Amino acid sequence: xxxxxxYVLSLIALCVFFTxxxxxxxxxxxxxxxxxxxxYYPNVSESVLNSTSIRDLxxxxxxxxxxxxxxxxxxxxxxxxxxxxGIGVTIEEHANGLKIISTIKGGPAANGGILAGDIIKEVDGxxxxxxxxxxxxxxxTGKENTKVTxxxxxxxxxxxxxxxxxRKVINIPNVETEKLAGNIGYIxxxxxxxxxSKEIQKAIKSMPGMKGWIFDLRSNGGGYITAAxxxxxxxxxxxVAYLFKYKDSETYYTEPIKQKIxxxxxxxxxxxxxxxSASEMTVASLKDQKAAKLxxxxxxxxGVMQQVFSLKxxxxxxxxxxxxxxxxxxxxxxxxxxxxxxxxxxxEIEYSHRDFLKQQLKGYNKLSNINQKTAQKxxxxxxxxxxxxxxxxxxxxxxxxxxxxxxxxxxxxxxxLQLKLTxxxxxxxxxxxxxxxxxxxxxxxxxxxxxxxxx
Length: 455
What we know:
The chain has 455 residues and is an alpha+beta fold. The strands form six sheets. Strands 1, 2, 3, 15, 16, 17, 20 and 21 form an eight-stranded mixed sheet that branches. The model is unreliable at 1-25 (pLDDT under 50).
């Protein structure tokens, strides 16, 4: 295989977020045809090249090849860089319109009662069936405080209704961080933007002393390929970024772009069916090279790259020009990447965090599980043959939420050879914890118990 060293233009690997309609007046059809014939991957038929409009031509290509006006391209790049004015949703194409994957907390859609799974059938009376997501961004986005009316189908209730919302500036931090129990650092990346690797490095630096990291790529639809190369360059064990093949070519490989600050402890990655494109490039690379452990569900399955061509009239053609694979030639397109540990939807963080905490508790005695209702304010730890009372009463007691933070507690030692723990905040139903009793002497073993909170 040859090493691919140079890109003429930025390649974009994106699974889309929003949607609109395109005006095709005075379109540069001949220019588009020449580009498609020369660069489209894997190939194109003469019948497609005989199309009489750009719209007809691109409809016969793959879903990621789209013609955009200058304004639409600006909206498109803004969505990658998380600079948005709209209703606060992430979406994907659906046979009946646009399916909402998630709503952004505090955004107009979430505040208006719109739910993940809802399908937008119309925007301001415009039927969205058959419209490409990338060319419909302008219908939902727009100027701040302008209104937009959506016709929505909700499968859970088999109902169709309209909802009028006012567009707002959607402030989405591209990188989100949190310190989890047991000194496990959590970093979420929402999009592969130009400054993603710098923001991740800043986040790593802001949390010194972490014993492990959870890197969250759930619902990350991708972005710029150079950003993916930089993100992969954060992993010390990653020596190859990805394999790449374009039209009528051999298979090439690309090295990661090494970063100054790298992950300094083991990393788990969480992913789901909406992790796409550049996210899949990342997880395929890391899985093939055993550079991280993957948790979640099989990813979306977008393994093709797009190159953006600027046309003479200022419009843009985003065209699929190649396919990328994992370093071991792992196929991504239409297959996705399977995790090392499959988890239920919504439990990805909990499973990965649990494994980190279990690693820390190796050598501890495992006590019986505790099942307790949320109404019960006190947790009782009774004397155990695995841990004698003298050890218990002198132990350091910690309450670690699995998938969350360490909880503050009050510890009371009783004369009945038991400990009573009172959390400072009420524990929520459905949450799980480790009650950890760390012995202060080497003669006695430490111990832990799993605490399950029910309704």
